[in-house]
Amino acid sequence: MSILVTGAAGFIGSNFVLDWIGAGLEDVVSLDKLTYAGNRENLASLDGCAQHRFVLGAIEDEALVSDLLASENVTAVVNFAAESHVDRSIVGPGAFIDTNVVGTFKLLDAVRRYWSGLSADRQDSFRFLHVSTDEVYGSLGPDELPFSENNPYRPNSPYAASKAASDHLVRSYGETYGLPVLITNCSNNYGPYHFPEKLIPLVIHNALRGKPLPLYGDGRQVRDWLYVKDHCGALRAVLKGGRPGQTYNVGGESERANIDVVKSVCDILDRLRPLGHNRTYADQITFVKDRPGHDRRYAIDARKLKSELGWRPLESFESGLEKTIRWNLDNSGWVERVTSGAYRDWVARHYA
Ligand code: NAD
Ligand code: TYD
Fold first, then answer.
1. Which atom from ligand 2 is nearest to the alpha carbon of 159?
2. Which has the closest alpha carbon to 307: 253, 256, 248?
């Protein structure tokens, strides 16, 4: 008996698999296409571990997925596989439709066929957990209530629209075929193994190399930050106790404006890696052209997850951020290896 984790070599997927195996739960089959965002090295500490198997492949490869489901006696699928960077979705939305929409559909269909052949008991206990984002709900005004599970979907970027489409497909497979699906919509994560194209790891990376810390527009956009290990804890809770067919919002009650996030990173680096001569990393902050369609504010109401499943985040934004920065300082080799030529080309074009 195993669980199948897709997108397992990415940021959240790798944290999830490492924590899951560390907790001694079911065996894991990790499936990942290893796009620019996927890194086999994230799971290298599990090489030789009998409870883990890595398979290079895509969620849209129905034959491969069907074979894995049957041969590994899969009891649950956790779907992290996605194109996940909003800025890249603005430049090239096609890959987001291919993986997030068509890929999720093909994965779902392979899972449905496998699931329909299981015994009634195994059908009941089977779960398909789709890991999604708060960005499907659109943007909040400063005084609006945080997103609850009942908010309408109003995606504003191609990324958010592709995730919204995938959520709808997952929901429809629950309603139409009875597949025991679960959807989680989580706020912005940060932590170890975060690819340095997203705000927090990019700022840590650039600060340490004396480069500009780019803030889009006025830098006052608000995100609700959650330490990645707390997201993984929420996913384990939803898999174990979530009601099939339900959506659970996941968030850290840590709303911060981007400018404050960047200043917090600078403050911690000033303490851990002082520049000397009364200089501060905050001097590197630079305001750049805003992102088109930039959502102003996200905030999550996670009361359903807390009251039904007893989940609580263990880290505050401050404690999680310090852990993240220390991880980056201790793993500079990882950062160097993931910032390959292709990544440097993207940065050169995007921030030109
Ligand atoms: P990521 O970009 O770091 O990782 C995505 C992984 O999916 C990579 O390893 C990549 O190689 C793999 N992948 C891409 N296309 C694939 C395909 N067709 N088949 C198999 N594997 C494929 O993303 P992440 O930040 O770890 O996000 C994981 C999931 O969580 C995504 O679905 C994302 O929408 C969602 N999410 C992310 C955040 C966040 O703050 N990062 C917040 C909420 C939800
Ligand atoms: P990001 O990490 O890309 O996540 P998302 O767009 O999914 O929320 O961006 C977080 C916030 O930081 C978002 O408001 C955009 C902003 N941002 C910058 O100001 N500068 C940057 O260089 C990046 C990558 C993001």
1. 7
2. 248
